[in-house]
Each structure stands twice: as C-alpha cells, then as structure tokens.
Design a protein that fits this description.
By secondary structure, the chain is mainly alpha-helical. The protein folds into two domains: 1-97, Serine Threonine Protein Phosphatase 5, Tetratricopeptide repeat; 112-201, Methane Monooxygenase Hydroxylase, Chain G, domain 1 (Up-down Bundle). It has helices at residues 3-59, 62-75, 80-93, 96-109, 114-135, 143-166, 170-200. The longest helix is centred in the N-terminal third of the chain and has 57 residues, at 3-59. It is elongated and about 100 Å long. It starts with a helix and ends with a helix. 26% of the residues are buried.
C-alpha cells in the first residue's frame, strides 16, 4: 500500500469516526431533551392523576386508588404527593406498615411536608392505642407489648413535634401542644410500667 492510499484510508476513517461521534452526540442530545420534556410535562400530569386517585380514596375505592397510585409511582417515584396518597390509602385499608413506609418516603422527598408528619403521628398513636386496647384484658402487660406501645408513642410524639414546627395555624398549634403533653404523660406512664415489669422478671 502506497503512502497516498494510506493517507486516503486514514482520512476516510477519521471522517467516519467524526460522523459516528456526531451521530452519537445527536442521539445523546435527543435523549437528554426527551428526558427534560417528559419530566417537565409529567409533574403536571402526575398531579392530575394524583387528584383522580384521591377522589377514588374519598369515594371509598381504596384498592382502585392504590392501583392507580402505584402506576403513577412507576412513572415518577420522586413525587412526594403520590407517596403521601399511598400512605393515606394504606392507612384506610388498615395496612399500617405500608402506610408508614410511604409517608416516610414522602417526608424524605419533601422534608417540609407537614400533612405527612401529621398522618404519621396519628397512625403511630392509633397503633399504640390498639395495643393498649388489645392488652387491656391482661392482668399484667407483657414486656413486648409495653415496648411496642412506647415505641409507637415516641414516634407519634416526634411526628407531632415535627408537624408543629411546620404548621402555620395557631389554633392547631395549641391543640398539638396539648396532644404532645398527653403523649408525654402516656410515655412516662408506660416507662414506669416497663421498669416495674422488668424488675419482676
């Protein structure tokens, strides 16, 4: 192969490489633009879909709402309102662990999501009250029951406290302060029961 042929072959390879790089750049740019377009459009669409799912929750179609919300979550798992609505739906269904999981996810995505903290506080408080009610027939509360009650009361207290820092409603702040004092009294009571029961074992 002579020098001219080598130079011509090298020029062809350089041109092919440049075209390939240009093609890849165009494809990459198209992908980025599509992602930006879909993201900017989808937030409005996802908000609309969330409103429809909330209407299903309000109408009592909890399973329908959960199905729709999980589909929305597949489209955009970074939308806090979807996680919040899933938490509310699972709470209404009585699946509290799932409700807590989704509400916690909502607060991770939006640390100022006051309603999510309030819902968490109510769920934890209700879980503690359920254990208290179920254990009321027992002569002495089992250590495991007391531990779960204390855990749920403390989580409820933390969530109400966080909600208190975020809410702007002054009359609501007063009622939350009263709730926090009541929870504090309950925590003290069950800590005493825990100590007493632990000493007897």
């Amino acid at each position: 192969m002579n020098l001219n042929n080598m130079i011509e072959s090298l020029n062809k390879k350089i041109i092919e490489g440049a075209k390939m790089t240009q093609h890849r750049f165009k494809l990459f740019s198209l992908i980025i633009l599509s992602a930006i377009f879909l993201t900017s459009c989808s937030n409005l669409d996802i908000q609309t879909l969330n409103l429809r799912a909330k209407a299903l929750i309000d109408s009592g179609d909890i399973d329908g709402a959960i199905g729709r919300l999980e589909s929305i979550n597949d489209l955009n798992p970074n939308f806090p309102q979807t996680h919040y609505n899933l938490g509310i739906a699972y709470n209404k269904k009585g699946e509290f662990d799932k409700a807590i999981k989704f509400l916690n996810e909502a607060t991770k995505l939006n640390p100022k999501f006051a309603d999510a903290y309030y819902s968490l506080a109510v769920i934890y408080e209700n879980m503690a009250l359920t254990i208290i009610e179920e254990s009321s027939k027992e002569k002495k509360l089992a250590i495991d029951s007391v531990t779960k009650i204390l855990e749920n009361l403390k989580y409820s207290q933390e969530s109400y406290a966080k909600y208190l820092t975020l809410t702007q409603n002054s009359s609501e702040k007063e009622s939350i302060q009263v709730k926090l004092e009541s929870l504090n009294n309950d925590i003290s009571k069950y800590q005493d029961i825990f100590i007493e029961n632990s000493a007897e074992q």
